[in-house]
Amino acid sequence: MDYNKLSSFISSIPPFDGNQSDLYPFIRAIDAIKSDLNQSEFKVQLTQQILLRITGRAREAILTYNPSSWNDVKRTLITHFDTAETELQLQERLCSAVHNSKPTI
């Protein structure tokens, strides 16, 4: 794959601006590209092109934490833009974990 094809392929991915509903589609699209092209001669350009697809509030979060890899970028985006669990959801997870960890007699 040449650099122009790489650029046009990445440009076809809508930018991510911090909108939660776009978070996982964006991550899946980038993960698919990374798995196909991670070992290519354009690895550095690939990372730069991905970072250019992140805009707005999401870009601010990335610039604040300055992640060094796609996994760091992904973790930062999920931390800041994924839907937080409600108190009820956390209680349900805790009860489920406690219930599942009790030994059976």
Cα-to-Cα separation, first versus last residue: 60 Å
What would you report as the Rg, rounded to the nearest angstrom?
18 Å
- One letter per element, helices H and strands E, the order comes to HHHHHH
| Biggest beta sheet attributes | none
Classify the helix fraction into a percent range: over 70%
Total tally of structural domains: 1
Low-confidence stretches: none
Shape: elongated
Mean pLDDT: 84
The count of helical stretches stands at 6
**Could you tell me the strand content as a percent range?**
under 5%
Can you count the beta strands? Answer: 0
The structure class reads mainly alpha
Question: Topology of this structure?
Answer:
Layout: H1 3-11, H2 20-37, H3 43-52, H4 56-65, H5 70-81, H6 87-101
Describe the structure.
- The chain has 105 residues and is mainly alpha-helical.
- It has one domain.
- 70% of the residues lie in helices and 0% in strands.
- Helix 1 packs parallel to helix 3 and helix 4 packs across helix 5.
- It is elongated and about 55 Å long.
- The model has no long low-confidence stretch (mean pLDDT 84).
